[in-house]
Amino acid sequence: GAGVSQSPSNKVTEKGKDVELRCDPISGHTALYWYRQSLGQGLEFLIYFQGNSAPDKSGLPSDRFSAERTGGSVSTLTIQRTQQEDSAVYLCASSPQREETQYFGPGTRLLVL
Amino acid sequence: GEDVEQSLFLSVREGDSSVINCTYTDSSSTYLYWYKQEPGAGLQLLTYIFSNMDMKQDQRLTVLLNKKDKHLSLRIADTQTGDSAIYFCAGLNTGFQKLVFGTGTRLLVSP
What we know:
Chain A is an all-beta fold. Chain A has no helices and 10 strands. Helix content of chain A is 0%, strand content 49%.
């Protein structure tokens, strides 16, 4: 079946602009995760959604970052007033209810000029 | 917090075995994973092991877990050029549901 999809695959933006990154999880998966992969910091957890529970936002690096998940499916990660240090690959993953294996999408490569 | 270390680089010849190592500080991980990342791609799940196991074999892949030494390894038998990629180990504490990744090992397989 279809895997996790993310869009856009690449995004170039100017410092100070807002960006929205989209994730479509595997159909039927109730858990959704966002991670960031950057040269300096490696792979870092950002945020976790599980069903209708309040999300775990403990990994968001600043209040410029936010995410929502509509209808328990698609998620959008928003970065406001982007900075050059936000340049990274943003990876989304999903997993079936209460199963621990996370399946990753191809990522969105964000470059902030 | 959790600290997960891997050697940065490994070079092998096609047909040889590759062993990629991972050490971690937090022993509360319930599951330990190996992911593969090819250039420009996302993370592909290769295999995983429960923390109460010490070995798991899956075709060419063998995972060894030494909980006493907090050491995890991935052995790839008969390594092929298509195995060239970056390999990440990751731990999951089911109480927190977030993966903690190692620094990644770049495997280069030469013909």
